[in-house]
Design goal:
Layout (H helix, E strand, L loop, with lengths): L9 H24 L6 H28 L4 H34 L3
Helix pairs in contact: 2-3
Length: 108
Amino acid sequence: MSDPTSLVSSAAVRGAYRTSQSIMGEKGAAATEESNPTSFSNMVRSASENAIDTMRAGEQTAQAGLRGEADTQQVVEAMMAMESTVKVAVSVRDRFVEAYQEILRMPI
């Protein structure tokens, strides 16, 4: 079995930590305003929007690097963030498909 630390980049970990902190901050603010928890569909929508934003930022950084406006380290970090975002998105998609197939196999 492979080492789990080789599967996750430090940029992905930092991004996940920042996202969890922002979710906790939003949750605390929402709890004072409203007692309804965040729905699953809103959570999925938010995660997909964050993934799209990461991809767009990475593309912009890569283009800036090609124009000579960004240094190599920034481009590499952006590409690593994009790569980890794609890996997570594919993993989540596979889990959704797996769950859907399991539901289809359930007897009625």
